[in-house]
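Hey,
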Amino acid sequence: MTELTLAAVDLGASSGRVMAARVGPDRLELTEANRFANRPVRVAGTLYWDVLALYGGVLDGLRAAGREAARFDGGRLHGVGIDSWAVDVGLLDGDGALLGNPVHYRDERHARAVPGVHELVPPAELYRVNGLQHLPFNTLFQLAGMQRLAGFGLARRALLVPDLLAYWLTGAVGAEVTNASTTGLLDASTREWSDELIGRLRLPRELFPPLRQPGERLGELTGGVLAETGLAGPVPVTAVGSHDTASAVVGVPAASDRFAYVSCGTWSLVGVELAEPVLSEASRRAGFTNELGVDGTVRHLHNVMGLWLLQESLRTWQAAGLPADLPDLLAAAARVPALGTVVDPDDPRFLPPGDMPARIAAACAETGQPVPAGPAGTVRCILDSLALAYRRTVRQAAELSGREVDVVHLVGGGARNELLCQLTADACGLPVVAGPVEAAALGNVLVQARAGGAVAGGLPELRALLRATQEVRTHLPAGLPEGAWAAAARRLGWDG
């Protein structure tokens, strides 16, 4: 086997990055080639993704990745893979032109389609087919709402964001299965599009392209893209776990299957890795989702609101001219007494952009708790609340799935937050292994490298390479006793 130089396009809800990687049987190195902002734009009351700016950032990143590749023998890029957030779609007309910028999942309009969908297919029946946690912005609700728009009749394909970018890079149309499983229109058991659901929701079947599996070659960079980026072809584009959480779970350096994961960024995806979906009524009522993973796995998880609460609080303080340096705030928050106030991170009021500290204060007051004192108190409330939510979700995932959990792996940007990692260990009563931060990009390039013959084996072998090459930190439970966390949970109406 030989070493390959690969590019991982990894797009998050607040920023995008293109990472250059050198991968071989005993080597796994990442270098950031380009990082760029991902700023939604509100136009005439609707919140859009600026997908053309994202595509421009991807091209800049591929150009930079090519320069990184020049440092190695042969001097060329051997492949590209793309992962991003889920659910949001771009519609193409019959000529393959984009009909409009994808609408952001946080836009309020999606929720208006929910009652009409549930009239056609009741929630419990939906879950038995798609296995998805109810979120008002799931793709099926977005598409149902779009049916009222004049331009919808022109649509011939609906492409999720990574599939759209891959189409622009290669000209090939497809739907990678891990991201397709977040639409609500895939059958969780057969792992195919559900023609029954698509028909009952009166959606055109032609919108949904052929499914692609992680590791499948999608195509090659077109001549135009090669010319614009200065890359020497051919450069294959490979399907990876194109839902960033699917790639991040590949990037979990677990030594056995008895683990839970927290993929912690703007959202926190908390769950376990299984062989089959859990489609029980108890799983539906607990708000768990069954999303497809790499190598036929299932991510049985719950979406927790995540570091969005902290990110939006920082924006609010910055706009008001208040100090909002995150390291200083985390140091101050560590000195605030634990569990003074907690909130449910999944409270719907926290979903839209806005004055997050004021919303948190209102939620605390409504539950008869003290309002957090200043920014440090608010940060401590957020981190305590996230750790409490992780505790609850890890325990529910284990109970619903029958999977025993010995360790929690916390990956993604939140792995940098030592206070959050320690609080998670304390709350769960389990060791927390923090890192790698770039788990999604690592999972992305590992799937590419295996497809290209640079590494071999299944997920255990890929994760062994991670353990051998990536730095992690282990946090052991050392804080408040179990009873304190149980009492805080009861304040929110949760079982202790």
